[in-house]
Design brief:
By secondary structure, the chain is an alpha+beta fold. The chain has helices spanning 18-21, 31-35, 81-98; strands at residues 10-13, 49-52, 55-64, 69-75, 102-104. It has one domain.
Length: 105
């Protein structure tokens, strides 16, 4: 039996989100990073974590402009086109939550 691969899903997690902070051992969340050869400290991400399919792939920050929110990514791995679309969808969802236009820098 073959399973169709589902589209990737992205999450912009805020600092102190329990998905990341609530775990003593976070190694399972960074297996994609380790597989790509990355072996560093996540503290420079500033606490806001970007995940794809539950795996940390970078961080993010937002800045408020006059009537727009700009989301900037700090990627630690290269994203596929499907992953980029998933992130763009998450940024749109974030904009709806904020009730204002939100763009990905």
């Amino acid at each position: 039996m073959r399973f169709k691969r589902k589209s990737p899903y992205a999450h912009l997690l805020p600092n102190y989100d329990e998905y990341f902070i609530g775990l003593k051992d976070r190694s399972a969340l960074a297996s994609v990073l380790r597989a790509s050869g990355w072996d560093g400290d996540l503290s420079f991400l500033g606490g806001h974590i970007l995940t794809i399919n539950g795996q940390i792939v970078g961080g993010w920050a937002r800045s408020l402009k006059k009537e727009t929110t700009v989301v900037e990514l700090k990627l630690l791995t290269k994203l596929s086109d499907n992953e980029r679309r998933a992130v763009a969808g998450e940024v749109r969802r974030f904009g709806k939550f904020l009730g204002m236009p939100t763009v990905l820098a």
